[in-house]
Every structure is written in C-alpha cells, then in structure tokens.
Amino acid sequence: MTSTVPARAQLPGTIGGVTGAPPAGRATALVDRVAGGADSPPVEMQAPFTGWTTAVLPQATDADTRAVFAQARRAQRAWAARPVAERARVLHRLHELVLRHQDEALDLVQIEAGKARLDAFDEVSATALVADHYGRHAPRLLAPRRAPGALPVLTKAGEVRHPKGVVGIISPWNYPLALTAMDVLPALVAGNAVVQKPDNQTALSALWLHELAERAGLPVDAWQIVLGRGSRIGDAIVEESDYVCFTGSTPTGKDLAGRIATRLTSYSLELGGKNPMIVLPDADVRKAAAGAVTACFASAGQLCVSVERIYVHDSIREEFVREFAARTEALRLGAALDYSAGMGSLTSREQLAAVSSHVDDARATGATVVTGGRARPDLGPLFYEPTILTGVTERARLFAEETFGPVVSVYGYSEVDDAVERANDTPFGLNASVWTRDARRGWDVAARLKAGTVNVNEGYAATFGTVGVPMGGMKDSGVGRRNGAEGLLKYTEAQAIAVQRGLRLRPPRGLPPALWTKAMTAGMKALRHLPGR
Ligand code: NAP
C-alpha cells in the first residue's frame, strides 16, 4: 500500500458535547492506506453531524488506478495459491477483531455517515456475521465437486472453482462498513484480489476494515483501496477488472452495465428500491407500527432496503397510522456518539435537498403530512424529521421514485390481492415486508411479491442479518446477488473437468454408427432410472 498523502487529516474530537472520536491522527493513519493519488488535488470531507472536516483524501487518477490494478494482479497469484482453509482463517480472525474493536468502527461510521449509533451497530454486526459465515462455509462451497459423468463409471466428471482474478468493487456511502464487508470478503476468500472504490464521504470506514484485515493476516496488496470520483476513475475500474461488483443507484448501475457488457466481463449490480410493506388485516397493529419505525427510519431511511410505501388494510388503517405516528414522534433525533438518539442525520447536502424536494412536491400534489416534513437545522446542518405522509397521489414524484430518506407514504387497501398488485407495481424489486399473526399466510404473500428479499414481521433486518441467504434485486433493483452461496460463487469461474476412460463417446472402430446410436439410446433410457444421478 503506498502512502502519498502527508499527515493532514483530522477527526473532530467531540460531537454534540460527547467525546467519542478516535484519537487525533487516527484519520491520518487510515488515509495513509489509500493507494495512488499523488498527482491530483485531494478533497476534504465533512462530518454530517457538524460540518467539520473529517479527512483530506487523496484522489487517484486514471493512471494511478490502472497501476493499482497491476499491483493487485501480482498479489492475487500468491494469495490464490494459499489453501482456501488458510484464507478462511483470515476471515475468522477478522471476525474477532471487528467485534473487539467495534467502538472505533461505531465512531467512524457515525462521524462519516451521520447515523445513530444503533444503526452503526447494524453495520458492525453485519460485518462480523459475514466474516464468520464465509470463514466457516467458503472451504465447502469452493471445494471441487464430483458430478455424474456422461457414461457411468467410464466418465469421471467434476466442477472446479477458480477465482476470477482482480475484482473491482464500487461502494456507496450509506452502509460503508457492512457493504464493504459483504462485497469484499467473499471476493477475497475465493482467492481474488480486490480493488475497491468506496465513496469519498465514507472512505475511513472502509479503510478501518482494510487495516483490520491486514492485522488478521491478509497480504497487504491483495485488497487495495483507491479513491476518486467515478467520472474520473470509473473507466479504469471497468476496463481493468475481471469482475465488477457495483452498489449504488439504478441510473449509475445501468450506465456501468452498458460499458462492462462490451468487454464481456461479468458483474453484479445492487441498486435502488421503492420497498413496500403490507400490513394484513390480522396483524398486531402495535408490533407492525413499531416495526415500521425501524423499517422506514433506520439510518434516516438512507438504506437500500428501507420501506417507503406501506399498504394497511382499511379495517386497521386509522389505528395503525395513529400508533405509527406516536412512535415516530417519540423517536429522538440527535448527533451524539452514544446510544441516546434513535435517528441520526442525513449524510449530505444533496440528500437533504432531495428529501426536502420530494416532501414539498408531495404536499403540493395533495398529500397530508401526518408527522415530520421539515428540516431540523437546530440539531445539525443535515437533520430532517422522520416523515409520514397519507393521501399521496400518483402525481407526486415520491409515489414511484426512490426518496432514499426518512419519508414514507401510507395507503389503505381492502383486498389483499390489490395490495400485492400495488406493491409489485413498480420498476424496482429490492425488498418487501409483510405483517401478520399467521406466519404461513405471511410466507405465502411474501412469495407473491416480486422482490429479492421479503421479511415477514420484520422490515429488513431478518433477511439482511441472515447472510447465508442471497440478497439482491429483481427488475431495476439489480443483477446478481450478494451473500449466500451466490455471493461467493459469483466471484469464481466454474470449470468442468471430465476424464474419459475406456469407451469413447463415438462408435468404436468397426461398429456401424446406426448400431452404436441404438445402443446409446437404450443406455440413455436405462440411465433415467438409475438412482443417484
Ligand atoms: P451512486 O451515485 O450511483 O454512487 C454509488 C457509487 O458509485 C459511489 O461510490 C460513486 O462515486 C460511484 N459512481 C458514480 N458514478 C460512477 C461512474 N460513472 N463510474 C464508477 N463509479 C461511479 O449512488 P449513491 O447515491 O451514492 O447511493 C445511493 C443509491 O444506492 C440508492 O439508490 C440506493 O438504493 C442504492 N443502494 C443499493 C444497495 C443495494 O444493496 N441494493 C445498497 C446501498 C445503496 P462518486 O459519486 O464519487 O462518483
């Protein structure tokens, strides 16, 4: 890892009167891990809670980025040559280190992303869970697999998994630690090297995990972090990667996919959503309302799987809205680096502008603001109240567009079929939620929803925390999956190897082809009844 930036980064010492920032110089040490960036002006990042400078970050050029890929490519060969069990042990040690040093990660995530500490803890736990999961299961999932051959006994066949090579990973700012772990760790344990481009806003969180991974035994060049705007270094990432894993907005994802496809490189895209929640008539209203608070306002709604539309059966709608509003109003907003606040701030000025304009537009097109609906500069420059809307019409932009903020629209319905249809009536298909006292009914409704993850009696956390199952989007919400077996195997090339013995798959010398094809036909018919194939 090359250090190209002089010691110049500084984290704020206190926020909201609570001391909790890492010691002075800590940001500098993390920034020194960034690869490239000597030849272009650095950028200064600000903490959303305060507007104070958190770090001054080097910005890579196109040439820097390509050089970093070359360095990663050299490191990849030695890393891939290590037994998978050894690579998995690095993840086990990382799991330990993340849990042991979590306080520092919580501070960093809060400082960079502006979220409440409990929401930052979601990131720590997802990181630890995913390290443990792949540390435990990667050796089995990556092991060569025997398969029945074309001719029983005579064809020995199997499947071998090879790493892709160097994986390019582009990450957003909203879940900087968890998404780094979920995308980078399986790529590494599969024997790839990684070049990651985190968002500038939240680079320190990724760099923190990078430092811990090195302490856990990862060779330093196997995971490289470059920083820079996508418009400047995106081409280099697309052109140098053997696989591209992108997480971000749907428009950027579509643009990148077009460019990646011309190179026939494989990729996965984790994109936006307009996630629905359906409250069935038999639901426990209090539990559903409490669940909705987390589902809609965790990380101030800046969560790809956050709920932005709620369909409540008409028989309980009024009661639900009352309960939901009361619980939302009880949510404490704050900027402290401790667990005292239930919701933090938005992360950037762009986010504040986007959220404000969506709510203003909904108001102007006839929506009622049940609670919230205004910025809170008294708490910090980017705070916005958790907002519940009713009476939202199709003319409102947020009716169909992702807001990516603490804003939710509540609608009524009388027939469950209608609620399912309206929930599915969107170009997106990322996450959904169903609330009912009848788990079986919940499962059945869930299976009818066109979303990559569906949570019954939870907003998003049940699937998000179950890292052994795949997570990703249908329709405009993405291509491919993270987590589960797919989240690991996507970073590999499958290779089939078959060893043929004795009889070839062609008529032996002297046997007329017509006779041979007859014998083969009889054989194929018999094979259908052979057990174990
Ligand atoms: P974004 O604007 O698409 O940016 C995401 C990342 O891509 C950033 O690092 C960004 O860096 C980079 N980027 C932008 N243009 C690029 C280009 N031409 N080439 C290469 N990289 C480029 O998305 P965002 O607004 O930051 O993130 C919010 C969106 O992400 C929401 O739509 C949310 O739903 C989605 N998201 C999805 C998931 C999921 O798992 N499905 C998870 C989290 C977020 P620069 O801006 O510096 O260029």
Total domain modules: 2
Instruction: Compute the number of helices.
Output: 17
Name the CATH homologous superfamily of the largest domain: Aldehyde Dehydrogenase, Chain A, domain 1
Bound molecules: NADP nicotinamide-adenine-dinucleotide phosphate
Q: Radius of gyration, Cα only, in angstroms?
A: 26 Å
CATH topology of the largest domain: Aldehyde Dehydrogenase, Chain A, domain 1
Residue windows where pLDDT falls under 50 for at least 5 positions: 1-13, 16-22
* Strand arrangement, major sheet: 14-15-16-13-12-17-18
Approximate helicity band: 40-55%
**What is the rounded distance between the termini?**
49 Å
CATH class of the largest domain: Alpha Beta
Mean pLDDT: 94
Percent of residues in β-strands: 15-25%
CATH architectural name of the largest domain:
3-Layer(aba) Sandwich
Overall shape: globular
Question: What can you tell me about this protein's structure?
Answer:
The chain has helices at 26-31, 62-81, 84-100, 102-113, 117-142, 178-189, 203-215, 230-240, 250-261, 285-297, 317-329, 349-364, 416-424, 439-448, 461-465, 484-489, 513-527, and strands spanning 14-15, 18-19, 43-46, 53-57, 145-148, 155-163, 166-170, 193-197, 223-225, 243-247, 266-270, 275-279, 307-313, 368-371, 387-390, 407-413, 431-435, 453-456, 478-479, 492-500. Strands 14-15-16-13-12-17-18 form a 7-stranded mixed beta sheet, with helices on both faces. A 6-stranded mixed beta sheet has the order 9-8-7-10-11-19, sandwiched between helices. A 3-stranded antiparallel beta sheet has the order 5-6-20, with no helix packed on it. The chain is built from 17 helices and 20 strands. The protein has 2 domains: 61-271, 3-Layer(aba) Sandwich (Aldehyde Dehydrogenase, Chain A, domain 1); 275-468, Aldehyde Dehydrogenase, Chain A, domain 2 (3-Layer(aba) Sandwich). A hairpin with a 6-residue loop joins strand 3 (43-46) and strand 4 (53-57). The longest helix is centred in the first third of the chain and has 26 residues, at 117-142. The protein has 533 residues and is of the alpha/beta class. Mean pLDDT is 94; it is low at 1-13 and 16-22. The chain starts with 13 loop residues before the first strand and ends in a 6-residue tail after the last helix. The chain binds NADP nicotinamide-adenine-dinucleotide phosphate. NADP nicotinamide-adenine-dinucleotide phosphate is lined by residues 170-175, 179, 197, 199-200, 229-231, 234, 247-249, 252, 256, 270-273, 304, 402, 404, 430, 473, 478. GO terms for molecular function: oxidoreductase activity, acting on the aldehyde or oxo group of donors, NAD or NADP as acceptor. This is Succinic semialdehyde dehydrogenase. Residues 1-22 are annotated as: Disordered. The active site is at residue 270. It comes from Prauserella flavalba.
